[in-house]
Amino acid sequence: MPTPHAAGAAATACCPPIVTAALSEGDAEIMAAMFKALSDPVRLRLLSRVASHPNGEACVCDIADVGVSQPTVSHHLKKLREAGLLTSERRGTWVYYRPAPGVLAALGEFLADTEKVGKEEIAPAVRIS
């Protein structure tokens, strides 16, 4: 069974698009760990803040204002790291986060409907306002 820590590295070489082949048990566990981490709104906001921050990385001090306490922010960032979605680096007293290399593109490719790419937009029922 793959470990969650391996998820980020495995995602870049992992899974073909979901519409082209059935997932193996190991690939399903890797992807499930990532999606589980992303299923929390605070974690999704934190990942968005890190990914959209100038220079592609963010100090925890710049992204912590998501409506929860600092210890809770740290817990959520740890879960994103464990799922392989973020990497971190300590610089002095601050920790800087960045998306794991290739993981966001790999998630997008995994969910891509390759048979319909460019032929239609997202269905109105799933469009986010």
Please describe what this structure looks like:
The chain is built from 6 helices and 3 strands. The relative contact order is 0.19. The N terminus is likely disordered. Strand 2 and strand 3 form a beta hairpin. Strands 1-3-2 form a 3-stranded antiparallel beta sheet. It is elongated and about 45 Å long. The longest helix has 14 residues. It has 129 residues and is mainly alpha-helical.
Number of helices: 6
Instruction: Write the element-wise H/E pattern from the N-terminal end onward.
Output: HHHEHHEEH
Proportion of helical residues: 40-55%
Order of strands across the main sheet: 1-3-2
**How would a textbook summarize the main sheet?**
3 strands, antiparallel
Radius of gyration: 16 Å
User: Alpha-carbon distance between the termini?
Assistant: 38 Å
Mean pLDDT: 81
Relative strand content: 5-15%
Number of strands: 3
- Unreliable residue runs: 1-12
**Shape field:** elongated
Short structural summary:
With 129 residues, the protein is mostly helical. It has six helices and three strands.
